[in-house]
């Protein structure tokens, strides 16, 4: 015969233990959920999503009362495209930050709260992407497969326009810099030309005065030549010839 009284104590102990574990687990999950909810979001408010939802929740009856035209479907599609473009930007940001954040978490450089914020942001973006795909398929069947490709092209076009505007903004500054540089180069070049002309003028002045030195030599030579010529002229005179004849006799 089973002694139920002896088994009642361990069974009561097991019941109390299981109940306390269940209570602790429930409280821990609630506290963890409250903590995760109280954490600061990873990204700021999704403005494009809020605009899209605001357009969806406009009451058509209020538009009829105000006699305003209904919102065309193209406006909803454009708002959904902008929402998808913002989702692409956020997904790429999460992908680029995940590896570095996990490395810092392993080293203990960041706390667990930051990692929980990141995981919550990843989960929210997964749900957001699914919601955008379902909304796109509701407008046009199969559009959910290409909406993010179109949004990516739109984002790249926007980036190219921003870069072009930045370059156009720097054009005036670069032109002023180049004009200043060109003026300085011209001034230095003209200065070098002036210095070269002054150097040539200084070199040409002694060169012109140099031939004056041998002028005395040429004058002396002219005197000697003249003396020799005068001597030769005396030899050929009649008096010289008579003296020469007397000498022969």
Automatic annotation (TrEMBL):
Gene Ontology annotations of biological process type: post-translational protein targeting to membrane, translocation
Listed Basic residues bias regions: 240-249
Domain of life: Eukaryota
Pfam families linked to this entry: Sec66 (PF09802)
Signal sequence residues: none
Region named Disordered: 190-249
Protein name per the record: Translocation protein (Sec66)
Annotated organism of origin: Penicillium chermesinum
